[in-house]
Amino acid sequence: MVKKKLPVGIDDFKKIIENDYYFVDKSMFIDELLNKKSEVTLLPRPRRFGKTLNMSMLNYFFNIEDKELNRNLFNNLNISNTDKMIYQGEYPVIYISLKDIKVSNWELCLEKFLALIKKEYKKYGLPLEEKRDTQENSLLNLSEHLYEKYGKKVIILIDEYDTPLVTAHSQGYYDEAIFFFRNVLSAALKGNPYLEFAILTGILRIAKESIFSGLNNLTVSTILDNKYEYFGLTENEVEEALKYYELDYELEEVKKWYNGYKFGDRLVYNPWSIINSINDKELNPYWINTSDNALIKQLLDKNDSKVLDDLKTVFSGNEIEEVIAENIVFSDLEDVDTIWSLMLFSGYLTYSRSVVSDITGAKTYFLKIPNYEVQSFFKNTFIKEYSHGKTAMYFKMLEDLYKGDMDKFEFKFKELYLSAISYHDTANSEKYYHHFMLGILLTLGDKYRITSNRESGYGRYDIALEPKDKSNYGLIFEFKIGDKNSIEEKAKEALVQINEKKYDISMKNNGVSKVIKIGMAFSGKDVAIESEIN
To answer: Is residue 503's pLDDT more than 60?
Structure first.
């Protein structure tokens, strides 16, 4: 039997249905929207979880243009068996996607947005008054023109509403962008007499004060609640797809790579990765390579000690407990605590459960890396940060450390360190070098339980890596700083300290029989290393 084609990179609902691509029926999304019938609904979800395809489906369902042709698209879908078909083809629809407004300056941003508005005018054959219809009242005026033409209120669909704002923040024109888009959305969505309802999608729930000021008719459903379960793929849907393409034997590996996301009470898979994986018949990090990840990298670059400590925890397969801000305020992005909210809503982390404090009433979430695909992103981020183009040597260096070949490790480390440190401000502080080393070692989190500044024996070691396989080497690091002429002696002092304070005692009590003790001393771009195995 000839299998259906997979819609790789296709998010036009009509094209998928008419060309008989493999399609997971999410049409009951329409039923839920109409049952809840909020005037303005915001649905933040991670990228590549089906937002654009769902919005395209809404457009073809409700749009008054080509009503009869579009009705045929839904003939065999679940929505066709409901009473909601009376709404099919009943409304003029303004459907714009802001996902491609990723430009370097405000003038280009405004130009691209207004081009989308002009395209909607042209689509409906409406006359465009440049001065009146292409500025902050553009969506409001367009809805008025459509109401006058059809005698019916308008549905507004805005896909990826936050993309221009995220880009504006990274490119330095955020003030102009937020001022303009706040006014555009306020005019179109607040008190618009021509509006039936509006749906917005994005990744982040940008704070009301930033963009939805005064909008008291806004309903928001994030990944933290149980509404609108039509984004992502359920396990049953993934199993059916794998079975259809005769790949059901791969299910456990597929789970390892792409499962683990939690939306409300539901576990879901990343559809972009599933489609590409089935199409290629390979397990690769597809989703993580579809964005520049700029905001995440910006916060990771701060090299904050708490962030590194918490990443160390999640790398080891454990959870961290954090307060999550559902509203993102861009001015708060200078605060590294914001990284956990950003990572959760962007899909880099997921949560297992939440708890409310009996004392303070504060709600916290237990966060973890969802799957192997996302873990590979974090690994690659740290590898790029510390290898500076010498990725093969970086991997070899870690392999040497893992195998206990300290001569080879020391040789490669010194060469990489000389390159990496030139990209950082050296510091006369042990804390700086501690963070630097922790960043390098975090990529070993799947092989070791990584801890730092923990008590063991008669003191606190700097960093310890306890192997998950107890037959492998354990690793204990102690760091010192000095001047160029004293670092050899300082490295020896660090090694002596490990032995005298018996930092290896906890590890050996846990069944690790072989431990590599490593004393390191730093002075600017110079480093000395002393080690022993016992």
So the answer is: yes
The H or E element that residue 308 is part of is helix 305-315
SS3 318: coil
Give the whole-number percent of the chain exceeding pLDDT 90. 60
Q: What are phi and psi of 367, to 5 degrees?
A: -105, 150
Query: What does pTM read for this prediction?
Result: 0.84
261-263 and 266-268: which strand pairing? antiparallel
| DSSP letter, residue 328 | B
* Model pLDDT for residues 257-285, shown as the tens digit of each residue: 999 999 999 999 999 999 999 999 999 88
Class of domain 388-533 as given by CATH: alpha beta
Quote the pLDDT of residue 444.
87
Structural domain boundaries in the chain: 13-220, 235-289, 294-374, 388-533
Q: Residue 90 burial (CB < 10 Å; 0-12/13-18/19+)? A: middle
Q: Which two tokens stand for residue 475?
A: 């690793």
Angle between helices 106-123 and 174-189 (to 10 degrees): 30
Rounded to an integer, what distance in angstroms lies between the CA atom of residue 275 and that of residue 278?
Answer: 5
The third-level CATH classification (topology) of the domain covering 13-220 is Rossmann fold (3.40.50)
User: Which residue, among 188, 196, 62, has the nearest Cα to 135 in the 3D structure?
Assistant: 188
